[in-house]
Design a protein that fits this description.
The protein contains three helices and no strands. With 50 residues, the protein is an all-alpha fold. The protein has one domain. The radius of gyration is 16 Å and the shape is elongated. The N and C termini lie far apart (33 Å). The model has no long low-confidence stretch (mean pLDDT 88).
Length: 50
C-alpha cells in the first residue's frame, strides 16, 4: 500500500482499515469474487493438502 512500518504504527486501527478499504476499491477491479468453478477448484486443492 506504500506505507512505511513507522506510518502504520502511528495509525489507529480504523485509519489503517480505511486505507485498506480504499486500496482494495482502487485495485480490485470489477470482479465480485471467485466464480463457482474457482471455488470448487480451490476446495479440491485444499483437500489435497490435508
Amino acid at each position: 500500500m506504500g506505507f512505511t512500518p513507522q506510518q502504520v504504527n502511528e495509525m489507529s486501527v480504523w485509519q489503517y482499515l480505511a486505507a485498506v478499504d480504499g486500496y482494495m476499491a482502487a485495485h480490485a477491479g470489477e470482479q465480485d469474487g471467485l466464480s463457482g468453478s474457482e471455488v470448487d477448484e480451490l476446495w479440491e486443492w485444499m483437500q489435497e493438502k490435508d
